[in-house]
Amino acid sequence: MMPIDLPPGFLLGAATSAYQIEGGRDADGKGPSIWDHFSHRRGRIRHGHNGDHACDTYRDFQTDIDIMRQLGLDAYRLSVSWPRVMPEGRGRVNEKGLDYYERLIDALLAAGIAPFVTLFHWDLPLALHRERGGFARREGAEHFADYAAVVVGRLGDRVSHWITLNEPWVYATFGHMAGNHAPGRRNPWAYLRATHHQLLGHGLAAARIKALRPAAQVGISLNLTPAHPATPRAADRQAAALADQMVNRLFLDPLFHGHYPEPYWGKLRLFRPTVRPDDMAIISNSLDFLGVNYYTRARVRHHRLVPLVQLWPETLPAVATEGQVAAGVEYSRMGWEVYPAGLFELLFRLKKEYGNPPVYITENGAAFDDVVTADGRVHDEQRRSYLAQHLAVTGAAARVGVDVRGYFVWSLLDNFEWTYGYNKRFGIVHVDFASQRRTIKDSGLWYGELIRGKRKN
Ligand code: FCB
């Protein structure tokens, strides 16, 4: 296997998000989020799971910080729950919510771990959705910027890296068109509005953060997925190029080039929101770094029956079972192909086509079936190998001049994996949800050794 050779000063960390780990659903004045509501609706989440308790980190974060310190992590990416800080999403501030994040960040700093803070990881305040339409309305962008200013006003003296939004594509597409994520809408107008208004919210928030803290580093985390044609047929190649616009360029192009990608944007003209003259200037040139969340690639086919775009991603080959190897290809428990070369392809493309921005890989990891053995260990060799392969290609990208500065494993902890509930385990630390007991998996121990080795060099 390719050796892992990372540039000097490269940060190694792990990531989580508020709704997936905190629990404390109405503790200390927190308002409900769209995920609190959605996960309690019948049939929305597998096994009827919800995030009411999750990893219980609202009550105890110190246990996990001790683990991070033991592993030697340089950095930890966490998200702030908007309704914990502003229960109605706008106006009134819940100081106790801010106190919690202040304590958490102080404890991280005391442990020598740099906090990377995401402001929106999908848990929109329910009131903002119900009364104001959330990001589906233009004012959602302004509410988000106001909220960002509140958080940065309190924590900006101790956090240097801010991530405005996590995966706006997933939030817009699954939340507003597919309907399988909160808020559960199925409306193409809402989908495109949520897309544009998130980008606008990002740009407005970035400006507010900079005004408060000129030295702050502001980024956004995008789920970038290479879209490859399922066959060499011209129709499939065209479908793949369009899928690339739909998932990757819909965000990269406005952020780096100041316009939406054609022909995708044109095909959707019926559903498009109003884009005001200044919007693209607000959105572009707003980044100090780009966060890349990478898991797998998509193989795309032309599909006559899909309206407008006429494409469909190939699903798991019939021969493969989730978590297995089929025809020489390995799949994770999510049914996602293990494809480290895709990360190299993406990173190189950012250098070639988007001006080589500073990049942090803000999520990368895999779900596998983990068991705690009688000796109290979790032998997750597949995850260790997944992480090692992706770190190796990250180092290779740095050697050809990609400005990649850090890497966060998704995830520090097994957690609430959205519609899948708790049965998809992504952690390098195993969580027994009944007892809240933590067990560092073999992949976590290995990651700790890697960090120690890097420090010696
Ligand atoms: C990403 C999300 C993250 C987690 C991983 C598996 O899309 O940002 O919260 O669910 O996938």
TrEMBL record:
It catalyses: Hydrolysis of terminal, non-reducing beta-D-glucosyl residues with release of beta-D-glucose. The keyword Hydrolase applies. Substrate binds at Q20, H121, N166, Y295, W410, E417, W418. The active site is at E167 (proton donor), E363 (nucleophile). One of its GO terms (biological process) is cellulose catabolic process. Keywords: Carbohydrate metabolism, Cellulose degradation, Glycosidase, Hydrolase, Polysaccharide degradation. It is an enzyme of class 3 (hydrolase). GO terms for cellular component: cytosol. It holds the Pfam family Glyco_hydro_1. GO terms for molecular function: beta-glucosidase activity. Its EC number is 3.2.1.21. It comes from the Bacteria. Belongs to the glycosyl hydrolase 1 family. This is Beta-glucosidase. The gene is bglA.
